[in-house]
Design brief:
- The complex is a heterotrimer of chains A (397), B (562) and C (143).
- With 397 residues, chain A is α/β, with parallel strands linked by helices.
- Chain A is built from 12 helices and 14 strands.
- Chain A has 2 domains: 44-249, Rossmann fold (3-Layer(aba) Sandwich); 256-391, Hotdog Thioesterase (Thiol Ester Dehydrase, Chain A, Roll), CATH 3.10.129.10.
- Chain A has a 7-stranded parallel beta sheet, with helices on both faces. A 6-stranded antiparallel beta sheet of chain A has the order 9-10-12-13-14-11.
- Chain B has helices spanning 15-30, 58-61, 78-81, 95-107, 119-122, 145-151, 171-183, 199-204, 214-231, 242-247, 252-272, 277-280, 294-314, 344-358, 378-394, 408-430, 434-439, 442-459, 490-504, 507-521, 528-538, 542-553, and strands at residues 36-37, 43-44, 85-86, 113-115, 162-164, 192-194, 235-236, 238-241, 284-290, 328-332, 363-365.
- Chain B contains 22 helices and 11 strands.
- In chain B, strands 3-11-10-9-8 form a 5-stranded parallel beta sheet. In chain B, strands 4-5-6-7 form a 4-stranded parallel beta sheet. Chain B has a two-stranded antiparallel ribbon with strand order 1-2.
- Chain C is of the alpha/beta class.
- Helices cover 42% and strands 17% of the residues of chain C.
- Chain C has 5 helices and 5 strands; from the N terminus they run E-H-E-H-E-H-E-H-E-H.
- In chain C, strands 2-1-3-4-5 form a 5-stranded parallel beta sheet, sandwiched between helices.
- Classes of the chains: A alpha/beta (397), B alpha/beta (562), C alpha/beta (143).
- Chains in contact: A-B, A-C, B-C.
- At the A-B interface, loops of A face loops of B.
């Protein structure tokens, strides 16, 4: 009898062997895989999932290797799923992508797993979505998926990745033409790799022209020049990924003003030492509302073995503080109350959403609901602020 | 009716009618037969005649030894004037062990020094940087000038040629020059070859020798050629190793083509540095594998000689006769030897060696029959040398120059191999030359496919191998010779001596040489190899020099493709 | 097609430790296993033992194949110890290449399941690896 609950505990506690076996269970659709994924879901939602696709030969693996290195210098934990094609004749496969990422083999904060595409024609192994859940629950900050990279079928990747990177390289003119019809549409970031080769700039220009045809209302995919081999441009790629990540979590297309409010709130959150200390991440916000996210760490646990009430309060309070300061004037909390209907464990991913309920010239009240990734409510919070100052410098009008 | 004549001079039948009679008879005797191909994929017919190669092509295809088209050999006297160099590659244990063995072999008839260093040296490390279990098991541990001095003790290096398995960045050559300096021997008197200077073959096929990344290797090789031209003019700084390609699975034709393309690449790199083709090309040498495919190997060498002479004249416009000479060392192929009934390998090696001799080799290494069982031991090594002695002294294989020249089969096959090789050269040219072709993995893919195809022929029985898929005997009782490992304590002692060497050096001198080397790596117009020689003489160890280059010029990782 | 009893392909790591760089044998074997329906992780030469352990664990392989042509088999006992220490005792290890007869038993004593010599046939290798993979799957914790 497989003890799924114990396995989940080990996995979110950072046990690599369990992580590896959980990936195998998902990959091979073992009987307990569905139950396992269900049990892991509360612990997911923190990872940014980046898919990398593009025709064979553009240097995807080498680029991924360089991107992992860049993320590591930024302190991220990285999970990688490298998909290789299976032989249509034998069903076997040689999984060789990770050879080009070998410098991370002994890094405890990088976990690389090769997946054979098996019968799935899309280039994405059927089990990729499940594998992402597992790596996310295991606490990876970034999950990178490298696809087989064959033409149109790569469109699949957009379904599972939050950010899709389409890689091209000089000399891939025909392939780029093919991209136009399909995978260019799904690109959030475009990369011209092997930028140290001649004609790289020309390739980039071609891509920009094709992009010009895209609906300009939405996110405009940047074209980044990189060399996976020398590492040139990879920091810009990481920046572009970060920008896209920020844009999707704050993507409320209604008014530009909301967008700038969100920018203000992200800035406030990033400058708050206490919020940073707890590992709280800003997700989205606008006039009178804000939401933030946190993964429960071992250091958040009380002597009862569950998440400390103070940590939950802090999470709710962070959302409360941001929502109440979203109007451009400085507000300070003067009263708050919280209830904890459900215990929370290590590895759970929690989201706190604050909404304004009343607002007068001097006072405003907020309700904050804290939910786990599976949707369960774990805390409700109410709070009141008083306006204590004038306009915040740099705040939108 | 009339009286019978006493004797009748029967008229000779016409060529065409005789040929068709033979064809009919042959077909009736043999019936349906599968089409045969050699390893390079060339169809092999049952009979060759002047229809295939008419003697009227003699001057065009053969000419005379020592002049273009060079088919018959690169010297006018060939083996009749001077037989090949008997070069047994040896190396084992400590520098003392090596010196003892070298002197013994020279007494047995070996005419040149060769040195295989320990795998730790190949990988660019000192003995104290690797697992002690691996030290000295496959070659001699040589880490500094002192070690080299012991290796070459009482060897007249101003008179015998020295060949080092010494990949980039050529630390062993630097140590030899250090020893010469200590002994007061002028560098101009030093002769020999940097056996393993072909970094392209290391990147593609024999990764053991790969220490630096492609760009760093590319630069330091040209530095070495330049340095030797100025200071060690009788040294061959370049040896292009088709052998690795063939051992890794390339067909004989592919291996020859890859070697020629590599030579073209190196020559172009030297030209770009401003050197003169007529000056550096005479110092280019080659190194090939000799497989058991007897006639194919002979044709490979004859064709290679012809193509190289043409490349030198047509591509590089070099007119010096010496520049056209396709000088090569050859080694019998270890991949053809079997673990089963290992003494059979003696027969295999003899046939391979004959192909090398008939192919016109300048230097020959014959494998010991136990090479496939363990690191070659002493008696099998002696038999290997004596195989060469027997072929020369008893079988008189050297009495006639190019004795197979004019054979309808050999000439036809030579031309067919030539066309096959040229086709591969054309493919590599189209990919932008050898450097680009290996960078992209194209060559690796071609070799991988050939290796698998040959293995497939063994698996399906099309290629019989005695003792493996044919004529097997029960060998369960057979035990291979005891493996030879350094005696317990030997390597511990060596490590102590290395420690003592390191602490006896002048720290100031070592630091100064190291920072000079570092600076040279980062200065475009400095000759890195010149500073490696300085560093070796100043007391830096092999591992220290390699570490500096790895740091400054990037570590070498092969592009492996399955 | 060779799959395990449960229809799932065997997963094999084919690699080289130590100092040698000859990889013709390991490439051919990797292709054999692929063509027999297995999933093969293939690495370049000179892997450090801790890296091989990390790969074995991350990829959750059933069998590790070590190719050795120039005495690298002498450090295989170190690898066996490291695998056991990492809780990977169920993983089967095979060695292929040039291993002198008098050192084969040393490898077996250290837990190596099988030693393949030059001339081993495709059939022999595929069948043995398949069988060892199935054994490993049986002993491995489910999750």
């Amino acid at each position: 009898m497989t003890d799924v609950a114990a396995a989940v505990d080990r996995l979110i506690g950072g046990d690599k062997a369990t992580l590896a076996r959980a990936l195998t269970a998902v990959e091979n659709a073992y009987p307990h895989a569905a139950e396992l994924l269900e049990a892991l879901r509360p612990h997911t939602g923190c990872a940014r999932v980046v898919g990398v696709t593009g025709p064979p030969g553009v240097g995807k693996s080498t680029l991924c290797n360089a991107l992992i290195r860049e993320w590591r210098t930024r302190g991220h934990r990285v999970g990688v799923i490298a998909v290789d094609p299976s032989s249509p004749l034998s069903g076997g496969a040689v999984l060789g992508d990770r050879v080009r990422m070998h410098e991370h083999d002994q890094d405890d904060f990088v976990f690389i797993r090769s997946l054979a595409a098996r019968t799935n024609g899309g280039g994405l192994a059927a089990s990729t979505a499940g594998a992402i859940v597992v790596l996310d629950a295991a606490g990876m900050d970034c999950v990178l998926i490298e696809t087989v990279g064959s033409g149109q079928s790569q469109v699949d990747i957009a379904g599972v990745a939050k950010t899709t990177v389409v890689v091209s390289a000089p000399g891939f003119g025909d392939e780029v033409q093919a991209l136009k019809a399909g995978i260019l549409e799904i690109a959030d970031v475009l990369v011209v790799n092997k930028a140290d080769l001649p004609h790289a700039e020309q390739t980039a220009r071609q891509l920009r022209i094709m992009l010009g045809l895209r609906d300009a209302q939405r996110w405009q995919p940047p074209v980044v020049m990189t060399s996976g081999h020398t590492g040139q441009g990879v920091d810009q790629l990481a920046e572009a990924l970060q920008e896209h990540h920020d844009s999707i979590v704050t993507d409320t297309p209604a008014a530009t003003q909301t967008h700038t409010v969100a920018d203000l709130l992200r800035k406030l959150a990033s400058e708050d030492p206490y919020v940073r200390h707890l590992g709280i991440e800003f997700i989205t916000g606008g006039s009178g509302h804000a939401s933030v996210r946190m993964r429960v760490q071992p250091s958040h646990i009380s002597f009862n073995g569950t998440c400390h009430g103070g940590a939950l309060f802090s999470l709710a309070d962070a959302a409360f503080g941001l929502a109440s300061n979203s109007h451009g004037v400085v507000a300070a909390g003067i009263d708050a109350h919280i209830t904890y209907p459900r215990a929370v464990k290590v590895g759970d991913v929690l989201t706190a959403g604050a909404v304004e309920e009343t607002r007068s010239r001097r006072f405003a009240t907020y309700r904050v609901i804290v939910t786990r990734s599976d949707g369960a409510t774990v805390a409700t919070f109410t709070g009141t602020v008083a306006t204590v100052g004038g306009a915040r410098p740099g705040a939108p009008q | 009716m009339s009286a019978k004549p006493k004797s009748v001079q029967l008229p000779l039948p016409g060529f065409d009618s005789a040929l068709s009679t033979w064809q009919r008879d042959y077909a009736s005797q043999v019936g349906e037969e599968p089409v045969l191909h050699n390893r390079s994929g060339i169809e092999i017919k049952p009979l060759y005649t002047p229809d295939d190669w008419p003697a009227s092509r003699y001057m065009e295809d053969l000419g005379f030894p020592g002049v273009a088209p060079m088919t018959r050999g690169i010297y006018s006297s060939m083996h009749r004037g001077r037989t090949w160099t008997q070069r047994q590659l040896i190396g084992y244990g400590t520098p003392q062990d090596y010196n003892r063995r070298l002197r013994k072999l020279m007494d047995a008839g070996v005419t040149a020094v060769s040195l295989i260093p320990c795998n730790s040296v190949y990988r660019g490390y000192d003995a104290d940087e690797v697992d002690i279990e691996l030290l000295g098991t496959c070659g001699a541990v040589v880490n500094n000038v002192d070690d080299m001095q012991v290796c070459l003790d009482e060897i007249p290096i101003d008179r015998v040629s020295t060949a080092m398995n010494d990949p980039l960045p050529f630390t062993l050559l630097a140590f030899v020059l250090g020893v010469a300096k200590r002994r007061g021997i002028a560098w101009t008197a030093i002769t020999g070859t940097s056996n393993q200077s072909d970094y392209i073959s290391h990147f593609v096929a024999n990764h053991m020798f790969l220490r630096l990344g492609l760009p760093g290797n590319r630069r330091v090789l040209v530095d070495e050629v330049d340095f030797c031209q100025q200071h060690v003019p009788n040294w061959n700084p370049v040896s292009i190793v088709g052998q690795h390609m063939q051992q890794a699975g390339a067909t004989p034709a592919q291996a020859m083509a890859f070697a020629l393309c590599t030579a073209i690449q190196f020559a172009e790199d030297c030209l770009e540095r401003g050197m003169q083709a007529n000056e550096f090309l005479p110092r280019f040498t080659f190194f090939f594998d000799i497989s058991l495919s007897f006639f194919e190997e002979i044709a490979k060498f004859r064709a290679g000689r012809r193509i190289w002479a043409r490349i030198v004249r047509e591509r590089f416009k070099a007119d010096a006769g010496r520049a056209c000479r396709f000088k090569f060392h050859s080694q019998t192929s270890g991949a053809d030897l079997t673990r089963q009934q290992p003494l059979n390998n003696i027969a295999r090696v003899a046939v391979q060696a004959m192909a090398g001799i008939f192919g016109g080799t300048q230097s020959l290494h014959t494998d010991a029959y136990d090479e496939v069982l363990t690191t070659p031991t002493e008696e099998p090594s002696r038999i290997a040398i004596n195989t060469q002695n027997i072929l020369r002294e008893e079988a008189h294989l050297t009495d006639v120059i190019d004795p197979l020249g004019g054979s309808y089969y050999v000439e036809t096959l030579t031309s067919q191999m030539e066309a096959e090789i040229e086709a591969v050269v054309g493919q590599i040219d189209a990919l932008g030359g050898m450097y680009r072709a290996v960078e992209s993995g194209a060559v690796q893919r071609m070799i991988g496919e050939s290796a698998l195809a040959f293995q497939e022929r063994i698996e399906n029985g099309a290629q019989k191998i005695v003792g493996v898929n044919a004529y097997q005997v029960d060998e369960s009782a057979h035990v291979s010779p005891a493996s030879q490992r350094p005696a317990p304590g030997t390597m511990e002692n060596y490590l102590q001596s290395l420690q003592a060497y390191k602490s006896s050096r002048s720290n100031k001198q070592v630091q100064a040489a190291l920072s000079e080397l570092q600076r040279a790596c980062n200065t475009v117009d400095k000759n890195v190899f010149e500073h490696i020689v300085d560093a070796a003489i100043a007391g830096l160890t092999h591992g220290e020099i390699c570490a500096c280059l790895r740091r400054e010029l990037e570590f070498g990782q092969p592009l492996v493709i399955v | 097609m060779h799959a395990n009893g449960d229809g799932i392909p065997a997963k094999v790591l084919v690699t080289k430790i130590g100092l040698d760089g000859h990889d013709r044998g390991s490439r051919v074997v990797a292709a054999y296993l692929r063509d027999a329906g297995m999933e093969v992780i293939y690495t370049g030469p000179w892997q450090q033992i801790p890296a091989v352990v990390a790969l074995t664990q991350e990829e959750d392989v059933d069998v590790v194949g070590i190719s050795s042509l120039a005495t690298d088999h002498l450090i295989v006992p170190k690898l066996m110890r490291a695998l056991r220490d990492a809780g990977l005792a169920h993983v089967r290890v095979v060695v292929g290449g040039i291993v002198p007869d008098d050192e084969v038993s040393m490898l077996h004593e250290n837990g190596v399941s099988k030693v393949f010599h030059p001339g081993s046939s495709r059939e022999e290798i595929v069948a043995a690896v398949q069988q060892l993979a199935e054994q490993a799957r049986c002993e491995r914790p489910e999750i």
